[in-house]
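Task: sequence in, structure out. Protein: TBC1 domain family member 8B.
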Amino acid sequence: MWLKPEEILLKNAFKLWVTEKDNEYFVLQRRRGYGDGGGGLTGLLVGTLDTVLDSTSKVAPYRILHHTPDSQVYWSIACGVTKEEIDQHWDWLQQNIMRTLSVFDSTEDITSFVQGKIRGLIAEEGKTSLVLEDDPEKFREALLRFEKWFELPSQEKLVTYYSCSYWKGKVPCQGWLYLSTNFLCFYSYLLGAEVKLIISWDEIWRLEKTSNVILTESIHVLAHGEDHYFSMLLHLNETFVIMEQLANYSIKRLFDKEAFQGEPALSDPLQITKRGLEAHAKSEQFRAFFRLPKEENLLEVHESFLWVPFSHFNTLGKICLSENYLCFASQDGSQCHIIIPMREVINVEKPDSGSRALTVCVRGKRALRFSEVRDYQRLANTIRSRCGISASPQHSASSEVKRLHDNPEDVTLMVGQKDTSKAVNTEALMTVFHPQDVENLDPKMLKEKMKEQSWNIHFSEYGRGTSMFFTKKTRDLIVRGVPESLRGELWMLFSGAVNDMATHPGYYTELVEQSLGTSTLATDEIERDLHRSLPEHPAFQSDTGISALRRVLTAYAYRNPKIGYCQAMNILTSVLLLYAKEEEAFWLLVAVCERMLPDYFNRRIIGALVDQAVFEDLIRESLPQLVEHMTDLSFFSSVSLSWFLTLFISVLPIESAVNVVDCFFYDGIKAILQLGLAVLDYNMEALIACNDDAEAVTILNRFFDSVTNKDSPLPPTVQQASVGNNDKASHVSVDISELIREAYEKYGHLRSEEVESSRKRNKLYVIQTLEDTTKQNVIRVVSQDVRFTTSQLDELYNLFKRQHFLSCYWTMKSPALLHHDPSLAYLEQYQLGFQQFSELFSLLEPWAFCASKSTLSLWIFRLIDENQDGLINFKEFCYALDTLYGVSFTNKLKFLFKLHLPPFVFSSDPLLPVKPTGRGKVDLQAYLKQWQNEILKKEETIKDLPRINQAQFIQFSKTLYNIFHGHPEEESLYRAVAHVTSLLLRMEEVGRRLQEPSSPPAEAAQPASTAASVEASSTQEASLKETSDASSSHSSQEGAAEQPDPDWSFSFEQVLASLLNEPVIVGFFERHVHIQTKLGQARVAQLKLKANK
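Result:
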C-alpha cells in the first residue's frame, strides 16, 4: 500500500534490507530473513527487531524508496506484504511517474512532485474506503498476529492494540499490548526469548497509572498477586481509559450479571469496539453530570457561546445533545450549566445567516441565544426534528408538572393517576404534620422568610423549574440552607427526578396497584423495618406516614427486583416523604438508587464499600496527621458506613441531616466525602489523643449529638432527640450550616471527575476482596465434607469459577446468566450447566474413559444435581471429585452403582439434564426446610440402596469396561469383570430355582443362556485392545439383553461382595491418584480446550 512519504536514513539500513530493483529515482528492497535466503541468524535478528520496532517493518517485508541522484536522503513511499503487491506498485511508478520526471530541472521539484502524487493517491484511497477502524489494514494484520500468538477462542474480539514496554523484573521487553473483550495480552520476541502474557479482566485487582524514578509514567496491573508494569506508551492516557472501560465492562457483565439491555454498543460481547466503548463512556459522563435518565445517550457536541442574561455576557461552553435533552455547560470557570428538556422547547429561530447563531424558545416566555455555532444550521434542524418527534402527552404532562410547582397548594394528581387519590398521598408529610404559621414572626421564622426571599430573587434572575441556570450562586444558597417550603421542589430539580416523573405520568400509581398485596422476601423485610424509620417523628407514628412509606418501598422493590429492598432505604425514603409528595419521593428514590449512588443498595453494598475506599484515599491526602497516628484506616471504613448509606441521616438530628441531603442532591457523593473530611478534621486533636477504637467512636458520637441547626423552624416535637443529651452540656454545640460551609471552604476543591476516577480504581480491589472472602467462606463450608486440602480446594474453586466465566465470555445467554439469582447464598453464586461441567470434568477425571464419555458425564451431573435444576454448585462438584479421588473402594463402587439407578440413566433424552428449569424466585421457607433436612440427614448406608435390574447391571458392567480401557492391566481387569458378571448371573439363576422349584426347565434355561452369552462376550472383549472391537462387543451385550427379565435384580451387597473377590479390580480402585497433577494440567488446558471447541 502507499505510505505517507517519510524521510529515512540508509547509513546502516542496508544491513537489514536487500535491494532487488532500482533506477535513477526509485529503489525496491526486500527485508533480510524474508523470501529466498531467509532464516538462520539473520531471521532471528530480524524477527527480534520486527517485534521491537514499528508495525510497518514487521508486517511489510517489501518497500519502495524514492531518492534523487545528488542526494543522500531517501523517502519511503510504499510497502507490501507480498512480492506481487509491491511489484504492482513498482510497475505503476514506471508507467506513470518515470516519464514525467524528465521534465523537471531541479531535484527538489522532482521530490516535491513525487510526494504530492503519493499523498494524492492516499487521499483517493481514503475517499473510497468505508471502514470502522482507524487503519483497517494494520488492524487486520494485528488481528492475525493476535490469533496466532495467543491461540484464544475464535470468538474473542480484539478491541485495540498498542506498542509498549513490559517490565519483567528490572528489564523492559519491547512488544505489543493487545486489549480484547475478555483479556489483556502482551507479546514480545527479543533475541529468541519469547514473552507471552494473558490476563483476563475478571482477575485484575488493581489498574492504575503510576510513576517512579525508573518509570516516568506507566500502567500498573495487579493480578494473581503479581505486579505488571507497561510503559513507553505513545498514548498512555488513551490506553489506560480503554483498559479501565474493558475492566469495568467485564466486572458488570460477569460479577453483576448485567445484560446491558438498551445499550447496543455493549449488549453483544462479540461486537465490542473501541469507538463503542468511547461513546458509552462519554454518554455515562454526560448523564452523570446533567443527572439525566439512563436511556439518554450523547449524540452531538457543539462548541458555542451562550448569552447569560444575569451576567450580561457570552460564556464559552459546549452544547450537548441527546435524544430528549439539550444541555449546555460552560468552560470558562463560571460553573454555569443548564438543562433544557426537548418537551419544553416551543421554537428554534435563526436571527440571521451571517452570525452563526440560533435562539431556542422554551415555555415560560424564555429564550436562550447560542452564538458562534459552527454547524448551526444542522443543529437547528436537529432540535426541530427532536421536538417534533416528542409526543404531545409529554408536553401536557410537563405543563401539568409546572402548574403543580407554581401552585404548591394545588393537590390535584398528575395526569394518568386516575381516581386513586385515596391510595396515594398528594402532599408532603411535613406540610400535613407541621404546617407553617404565616403569622408567626419569631426570629427563626423570619430567617426562614429571608431564605425564601433569597431563592425567589434567584428564580427571577436564573429561572425556575427544569430550565433554570445552575451557577456558583446556586451552590452558595444551597450551603446556606434551603427553606422548608422549597426543599422538595429543589430536590426534584437537582436530582433530575423531575424529568423522570414528567416523562412517566401514571407510572407510580400503576406500580402501586400491581405491587399491592404481593408477598416476597423484600416485602417481608419492608414490613419489619417500617416502624424503625424515624420512629420519633409524628409523621411515622401515624398510619398516614407508615402507609406512604410502605407503598413507596414496595413499588420500588417491584420496579427493580435486582435491588429489591435493602436496609437504610427505609430511613432515606422517610426523609424524602417528609418534604416531597409521595410520587415525587418515589422518583427521588429511583434517582438515588439508580444514578447518584450506584450499587449502594444491593446484597453486597459494593457502592458504599467503594466510596469508603475513596474516603480512605482522601484521608491520606488531606489529613496526614491523622494517618500518622492511626495507620490502620479500616476503622474509618467501619464507622463511616452508615454515613454513606444514610447520607448522615442516621447519625445527625433530622433537622440538621436535611441540610446534608440538600448538598447531596446538588453535588452528589462529593458533598458526603467533603463533610466526612470536615468531621474528622474538626475532631482531629481528640482522635489523635484517643487510645483505642472504642474511644474514637465515642468521640464521634458525642460530636454528632452536639450538631444543631439554629435556623430550623421545626418545633421540638418534630426535631429528633439526641442520643447523648446528658453529655451535651459538656460538648460545645456545632451549627450544621457552619460545618457544611467549612467543608466546602477546605475541601471544595475536590472535583467530581477525580471522585469518579478514584471510584473506578478502587472498585476492582473492593470486588476482588469480596470475591476472595466469598471463596474462603465456600472453602470453609466444603472442606468439612471432603478430604481435599485447603490449597487443593482453592485451586478447584478457581477452576470452577473460571469455567463459569468461560460460559459467559462470548454470550449473554448462558444457563448460568439466565438463571442467575443475586439473592442466593454465596455457595450458589457460581454454578455450571451440563456443558460447562462436562468440559471441566473431562480435565479433572481420574480415569481416561474411552467410550460413552459424554453419557457418563451426564449421569454424574444428574446424580450430583440434587435439586435437579440443571445447574450444580461448587459443593456438589467437589463431592463427586472427592469420591472418585478417594481410596475407599466401597465408596467409589457405590457412586458408580448409583449412577445406573433411575432417573440418572436410561432417560428419554441422553444429552440434556432431567429438568433444566432454573431456580426462579427464592422461597425462604423452602431454603429453611432444606437446611433443616441437611442437618438431620443421616449417613447413607449400603442397605439403603435399591436393587438394579438386569439391563442396569449390564450397563454397569459396560461402564467398568470403559473405565479400564487403556490401562496396562486392561486384559486382566476385563477378565475379572467378565468373571464377576457370570458369577452374579449364575447366583441369581440358582436363587430363582430355589424360590420357584415348580418352574419349567425351559424358563430356567433362559438366564443360564444369558449368563453364558455375557461371559462369552466378556471373554471375547478381554482379548481385544482396540476401541472399535470393544464397541462391537458392547453391541453384542446389548443384543443379549434386549428383553431382560424384569424380576431379575441385584443388590449392592451382592455386587460389592463379588468384586471384592477380584484383587486386580480392588487394586485398581484403591490406587491413589494425585489430583495435584491434574489441577496443574487443567489450569493450562482449560482455555485451550475452549479454543479448540
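The CA atoms of residues 531 and 618 lie 36 Å apart.
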